Amino acid sequence: MTTRDVVIVGGNRIPFARSGGKYLKASNQDMLTATIDGLVARFGLQGERLGEVAAGAVIKHARDFNLTREAVLGSHLAPQTPAYDVQQACGTGLETAILVANKIALGQIEAGIAAGTDTTSDAPLAVNDDLRRTLMELNYAKTPQQRLKALTKVRPNQLAPEQPQNSEPRTGLSMGEHMALTAKEWGITREAQDELTLRSHQNLAAAYDRGFFDDLVTPYLGLTRDQNLRADTSLEKLAKLKPAYDKGNPDATMTAGNSTPLTDGASAVLLSTREWAAERNLPVLARFVDAETAAVDYVNGEEGLLMAPAYAVPRLLARNGLSLQDFDYYEIHEAFASTVLSTLAAWESEEFCKGRLGLDAPLGSIDRSRLNVNGSSLAAGHPFAATGGRIVASLAKQLHEKGSGRGLISICAAGGQGVVAILEATK
Amino acid sequence: MTDTLTKLTNQGLGKTVAVRLGLPRPALLRRYAEGQDLLDGPAAVGSIGDGPVAASATAIIAASGANVVAATADSTYADKLAAVVYDASGARTLDQLEALRATLGPAVKALGKNGRVIVIGTPPAELDDPEAAATQQALEGITRSIGKELRAGGTANLLWVAGEAQGDSAVLAAPLRFFLSSRSAYVSGQPVLVREGEIPDVDDWHHPLAGEVAVITGAARGIGAEIAKVFARAGAKVIVVDIPAAGESLAKVANGIGATALQLDVTAADAGERIAAAVAQVGDRLDVIVHNAGITRDKMFVNTDESRWGSVLDVNLQSQLRMNKVLLDPSVAGGLRDGGRIVSVASISGIGGNRGQSNYAASKAGVIGLVRSLSQELADRRITVNAVAPGFIETEMTAKIPLATREVGRRLNSLLQGGQPVDVGEAIAFFAEPGSAGVTGQVLRVCGQSQLGA
CB-based contact (8 Å) between A281 and chain B? Predict the structure, then answer.
């Protein structure tokens, strides 16, 4: 069976806002709708029926059971465009692109939108389990006596709402605490993390200044650039920050600066066949080549929570007959600066590559000047499900600007998962 | 955004009180809606002598389905007239103007609401004889005065039809129709010159821009957004452009009219190239570029610093020169085709100057200079270059002017009200029409015959 080329036509995102910031009153549906509409406006897709829209949010209200479809109905796309929700933690955005790309490659659809949105400002608060059980009992009560009996079980302490947790259900450790363990294992220094952070901010600011995002970002609710971006930060300023994780330890390295903050935002990418794009005179930025996902057993401590991409990439390289050095751009999601550095260290380690990956030799090092060249999550922020779309669209444009070459995307996700992909410039 | 006085004095008690007190009562102007009849009543057509243009005018009006009656000195009119067209282009002596007075007077008296007076003349510069030139120049004084005397939303305008074009009804149709129609609701007391031009057949007067690609800069809000809507209504494929920071409202404008949004600072060095690239995406050629993007940085001249001076000139004028250079290069894919249109937005500030706006007035006067020069340069390529000079237009920007100043700006014109952004859009779309091929190098004021800058 032959598959068809899948191309990236373009993307759109709203500037990412810090949690509790400019998008305090925006819901996931609001942001996703605005982001899809920005894409529609950019490519004149008003009234167009697309094959599908796949999107998701990591933190989602129960009422948003059909989030993506509702966003499509609220957008200027044809209401006949089907949609579904996807959730794979921080891998959601890239996973939606893989799903849409695969359907296009198989000939099931001609074009689709892959998207993601997340807000921690409009996060759902649930009633706690005790109160919920009582209320359910009340709901099913048939007689006034039964109702009264159910109500007597309500206690003041049951009124405390249950908040969504930023921790792994199976370990009880937060993501940062997990990452701190991995960073320690790989001996990642504070200085190296701060340097990576500084470069992320500098690269993102420079990209904005040269207009790189003019056709990738549509302002939203008065925000025109990512709110987390600190164009004037410095190593000195970053060095002053106190550790945010592993706080008691004098050697703790991870701070609020070299970790991504909670962020609100949404992104979307338009994928299609070459023919679909050509028929509409739309640009083709890059080809979506291949993708791979991996997962690691972090529960039993065999591997770090965010190390799955280190496993996914070699499998993807092998399938495509490529080495780690065969790329012009590397987009490694900066969940934490130490995530990127631990992953790179692992690929350079003979012990890791032979012992854990079962390879003959280490994957080796990369040219660091090709890493996250237009900034990444440390500067832009990281609205979980929106990060994949941000990276796919930006990398596709980088490749289009260069006119040749290929790029590697690596995104770690909660639950010990990793989603990676290869894009290639189109001729 | 109708102002309160206009609303109040046109209905119920407010109307009664306003009439008793003799308050000014701005008329509710008839404006265009898709498919609207050209005129909502009969038109009277008269001329001095044979009137070389009168026959064309009669044919054009009749073709629209409107009833045409003859205007003579002893005509009486059974119905209220929607328009009177008077061809004075044959007048060569001052004595002949008496015929105009005798005929036009009763016809103007018979005009109904939103009546139209259109006088047709021969450009005085074409005439060697001083009395002939004086006679024709007199038409401007007559038309402008009638404009000031008309009430109930009436307008009076003057079409100078060049000698070469006087026998050509094709070249007259689009300009005449514009000034007769409700699309020129806020245009009064203005002369426009019509020359010879290559006019394609027009099948659909309601969608004259069907299939054309038009770029509108500064289209995220206000006048620019309304220009974009008028172009979309007229059938054009529209690319709306505004600075990246205005992207949110730009996307809304685009999605509202099925346009493509291009986030772009017009002062960027590669603005022309990026517009051409966007055009190449929706079609292979650009038919119309509308330079509407503009900023104000008001200060008294003596307090205007280098940044206020430079930024206004760069955005409002220099950027147009840079973009035109690229778009007019025949080798650029997505550039302006031969026979295309350039329309710039000037301002009455650029004609009359304005206190606190030396930088803005400089840029807008510059636009007028640019239009006059470029129109000659591009005549060989049949590209027309024109400008619209808006007066007081009801926008978010003018809503911020202090009340007293705003009221003066709003009322100091023959129509006693501010214009709507759509009025500017209609005038720009008129210049863009294929039928306007004979109109180039013109600056049309959309100001309700404002006394400012006159």
Answer: yes
Query: Is residue B5, in this structure, part of any structural domain at all?
Result: no
CB B119 within 8 A of CB B86: yes
A213 contact residues in B (CB cutoff 8 A): 244
| Token pair belonging to A380 | 């832009």
Domain count, chain B: 2
Catalytic one of B32, B77, B86, B360 = B360
Q: Using CA atoms, how far apart are residues B210 and B194, in angstroms rounded to an integer?
A: 23
Domain span at residue B130 reads 34-194
Contacts of A34 in chain B (CB under 8 A): 248
Amino acid (one-letter) located at B287:
D
Report the pLDDT value the prediction gives residue B404, as an integer from 0 to 100.
Answer: 83
Of how many residues is chain B composed? 454
DSSP string, A132-195: HHHHHHHHH--SHHHHHHHHTT--GGGGSEEPPPSB-TTT--BHHHHHHHHHHHTT--HHHHHH
DSSP H helices in B110-195: 130-149, 169-180
Q: State the Cα–Cα distance between residues A183 and A191, nearest whole angstrom.
A: 13
CB neighbour class for B361 (10 Å; exposed up to 12, middle 13-18, buried from 19): buried
- The whole-number pLDDT of residue A118 equals 95
Give the residue from B132, B161, B194 where a domain finishes: B194
**A41 and B268: CB-CB below 8 Å?**
no
User: At residue A161, does pLDDT exceed 80?
Assistant: no
Statement: residue A8 has pLDDT above 80: yes
Could you give the ipTM of this predicted complex? 0.86
Query: Residue A336 sits in which domain range?
Result: 175-210+288-425
- Domain-located, residue A66: no
CATH of the domain at A190: 3.40.47.10
The whole-angstrom separation of Cα A370 and Cα A399 is 12
Residues lower than pLDDT 50 in chain B: none
Distance CA(B381)–CA(B375), nearest Å, equals 10
Q: What's the Cα-to-Cα distance from A362 to each of A345, A350, B176, rounded to whole Å?
A: 10, 5, 80
- Segment B17-24 long-range contacts (CB within 8 Å, at least 24 positions apart): B24/B411, B24/B416
pLDDT, one tens digit per residue, over B386-438 is: 999 999 999 887 888 888 888 888 888 989 999 999 999 999 999 999 999 99
